Amino acid sequence: MQPDQKRQRKPQEETKGVVRFTHAIPARVEEIIGRTGTRGEAIQVRCRVLEGRDENKILRRNVRGPVQKNDILMLRETEIEARRLEKGGRGGG
After folding, report:
1. What is the Cα–Cα distance from 86 to 93, expressed in whole angstroms?
2. DSSP string, 6-69
3. Which of 65, 66, 85, 88 is deepest in the core (most CB within 10 A)?
4. pTM score, whole prediction
């Protein structure tokens, strides 16, 4: 067997330029609760689900990046909710 014969591969279909999105459910930010995470890199918000099985359900979620009231978040799922923020601060017990 020659070395060139080992390397032959079937041509694969090119999917260049095709964008595929996962299913997401829109939710509107109703309230900004505060910053969370070890360095305050996430923002905890309350949002209302706008469509789907859990329509009008209010969830608490952590969001990375800039967010403000009335923004629309696209949620992959609407069943898991973020933990409540602790009201304590540095060294608070």
Report:
1. 10
2. HT--PPPPP-TT-------EEEEEEEEEEEESTTS-EEEEEEEE-SSTTTT-EEEEEEES---T
3. 85
4. 0.70
Residue whose C-alpha is closest to residue 54's, from 25, 22, 83, 28 = 25
Would the CA dihedral through 79, 24, 30, 57 be positive or negative? Answer: negative
Buried b (16+ CB within 10 A) or exposed e, 26-36: ebebeeeeeeb
Q: How confident is the model over 40-85, as pLDDT tens digits?
A: 999 999 999 999 999 999 999 999 999 999 999 999 999 999 999 8
CA–CA distance, 2 with 24 (Å, rounded to integer): 51
d(CA 55, CA 86): 28
d(CA 30, CA 19): 30
